[in-house]
Design goal:
heterodimer; A: mainly alpha; Helix Hairpins; 3 helices; B: mainly alpha
Amino acid sequence: MPINYYIFLAVALFCIGVAGVLTRRNAIIIFMCIELMLNAVNLLLVAFSKMHYKALAANQPDAGINGQIFVFFIMVVAAAEVSVGLAIIVMMYRNTHSIDVNFLNRLKH
Amino acid sequence: MSITQILFWILSIMAILGALMVVVSKSPVYSVLWLIMVFFAISGHYILLNAQFLAIVNLIVYAGAIMVLFLFVIMLMNLNADTEPQKNKWLKIAGVIAGGALLLVFVGALKNADLKSQIAEVNHGDIGLIHNLGLALFNDYVIPFEISSVLFLSAMVGAVVIGKKE
């Protein structure tokens, strides 16, 4: 597949995630949209790693493997982030009895 | 049209449709289920690119662990009802316009980029197999791997400290 298609697919997924973060006010759905954006970036990294493999495989047999290792580490960080973030959402629900992010404007007053 | 191209288009349509439904659907539970569909579609893309280790890890970590965590939180806090009384529709329209403008900028910037000759190799190449990734992970990247275990430990402690009752 030409790399163009993967770039446009990942850009579309990323922009849907951005629009979701901007439009929705439910904190859990905002979190899910962030996961969507991370996955779009992961897909693009894997596509680029295979592109480099295709271009350079004649000289070095493991060209492009760094991209896939990087995707692995992004998944690790995303898992850690989700566990802490969901704990924060649970605590926020306990304090305000809502997960609407518009209620979180106490620092304004 | 070869079979890989047909699979590519099917998986792409699945991913984009699922992503749209994540944003659009009212109930958070439906959003989680659509997001799981997006993850399956992206795993299919990984398999198409012959990145089999990442496909399986994506399914296990995202669809298996993270989404179950989301479902647990939604169901424990009984957030199934639509908790989003919409007051300001202009905010929604502005968000959609902002996302669309970002998409427009990306597409406009990349439309004329000279990438036509670059091919992402599908269903060939063995850098995505667990043998090669494991060799790279435990030879060149063993320090980041160990540091990520420390990150997990601190995230676990942080989640417990934040989530426990006063």
